[in-house]
DNA sequence: TGTATATGTAAGTATTTGCTTACGCAACTT
DNA sequence: AAGTTGCGTAAGCAAATACTTACATATACA
């Protein structure tokens, strides 16, 4: 429980269980028990993960009768993507040509804040 | 100091201070004190963050006299990028249009005028 | 040589995390 | 109405995290 302080996307995806949950519900909404069936940890633990994902906007819950369907809203991942993309130039050897091309265009179109020198 | 168990890249970049460190040294190596100058936390705290980043391969340290220059090795970010990229289809409306556009011109790239591809 | 500089690391601490079990409640089923 | 199902949440706990101060060590410099 504690406080739900700085729930940001980076922290949300830091946990492997949460990444798996995202992976599970990315394509289709699932109710909580169905999600929990895929893990060895308890249902309340999954419920808490869902709560965290909800708090940072990665999941929206739609109630349907007594079930609650969890739907992924992955727009927040763009924050991660944008952050990582700044550094693609430092490792993009293994990136496919279209991808890197697209990234370059994208980097051109958006005004990123740059790593600041002193 | 507990154990340095599952140091993975996702967890490494979950901390905002570590993201700032990466941002600082992405372009140029810096010694530890220079890095620490940019933060309000103590030098040992920075040293510990560097250690974590080193343990997951994001930073390599090169000793030079009594200084230790920290150099970013951001290849590990590709793991994050690849993971996020799986879900790009779920959030990249603006990205998607550009992407499909690029795919089109990539498919028959002699018939289209391109954006400023650098 | 002695001292300042650059740094690692240990020890201690407060907070956060990720889990558990226990319980409560609303919504279906019979 | 009574039981079952689906779920949230509280309480408790072990471990991890992010810091601090104190100290050790190696290098540079006078």
Q: Could you please describe the fold and organization of this structure?
A:
Two copies of one chain form a homodimer. The first copy, chain A, has a three-stranded antiparallel β-sheet. Residues 1-6 and 110-118 of chain A have low confidence and may be disordered. The first copy, chain A, is of the alpha+beta class and 118 residues long. Chain A has two domains: 9-72, Winged helix-like DNA-binding domain superfamily/Winged helix DNA-binding domain (Arc Repressor Mutant, subunit A); 76-109, no CATH class. The first copy, chain A, has helices at 9-12, 16-25, 32-36, 43-55, 77-85, 97-109; strands at residues 30-31, 59-64, 67-72. In chain A, a hairpin with a 2-residue loop joins strand 2 (59-64) and strand 3 (67-72). Chain A contains six helices and three strands; from the N terminus they run H-H-E-H-H-E-E-H-H. Chain A is elongated and about 50 Å long. Chain A binds chain B through residues 8, 10-11, 13-14, 16, 19, 22-23, 26, 72-78, 80-81, 83-88, 90-91, 94-95, 98, 101-102, 104-106, 108-109, 115-118, and chain B through 10-11, 13-14, 16, 19, 22-24, 26-28, 34, 37-38, 72, 74-78, 80-81, 83-88, 90-92, 95, 98-99, 102-103, 106, 115-118.
Number of helical stretches of at least 4 residues of chain A: 6
State Rg of chain A: 17 Å
Helicity level of chain A: 40-55%
Strand arrangement in the largest pleated sheet of chain A: 1-3-2
End-to-end CA span of chain A: 40 Å
Please, how many domains of chain A?
Answer: 2
* Largest interface by Cβ-Cβ < 8 Å: A-B, 41 and 42 residues
- Low-confidence stretches of chain A are 1-6, 110-118
CATH topology title of the largest domain in chain A: Arc Repressor Mutant, subunit A
- The averaged pLDDT of chain A comes out at 82
